Amino acid sequence: MNNPKYTMIIQWSEEDNCYVVGFSDFPGQQWRTHGNSYTEAVSNGVEVLELLIEDYQIAGETLPVPKTYYDQVA
Q1: 20: helix, coil or strand?
Q2: In this predicted structure, what is the pLDDT of residue 2?
């Protein structure tokens, strides 16, 4: 993966008793993976992001434009 600039959100879920991971730049399912530790959630998130980008490319779909810090505070 060539340094994608997508936002990865990691949040504790009391309901699931684990960290859940989502990618707000991609439409669809809010949470895409999880981890029992923060480190595991990060690792799983990176793996899922790589697969998500690959799926878009295989399907010939245009990748979403990553939001930037300035997009979110403006």
Answers
A1: strand
A2: 64
